[in-house]
Amino acid sequence: DSAEASPSVVFENIERCSPKCLQMLLENISGLTVDADFTVELIPEINVAVATFIKNIDTKEFVNKCLRHKRVREFNMTARLLESTQSIKAENLPQSISSDYLTVYFESARNGGGPVSDVQLFPKENSAIITFCDHKGNS
Prior knowledge:
This protein is of the alpha+beta class. 26% of the residues lie in helices and 27% in strands. The strands form two sheets. It has a four-stranded antiparallel sheet with strand order 2-3-1-4, covered by helices on one side. A three-stranded antiparallel sheet has the order 5-7-6, with helices on one face.
């Protein structure tokens, strides 16, 4: 079952932990190295960070370790696996972007993509919703 687990872990309530502190904390808990073994993306608008593991680890066990960790509890952070989704929202797109370009871009294996089933452009918002054929191509 762990093989099907998401490679990404969501950390919520991160405001009391600086980005550098969070990276060091995750290195301490996982025994891995940021950038080489995992990346951390901050989403300050919603007080969340997402750690995505490049190295294959048991993310369910990692979440359990985090939830038991003294510092994580002191910071009042929560950790959970990132749910799989078939759609993503791309924002801040150039005015001239086409749905064909986005399809080709998000189908590129080099960009972590996969087969795209639909692209909805929202020109007024400079955004698009990209829907994949399966949830594997959305990293």
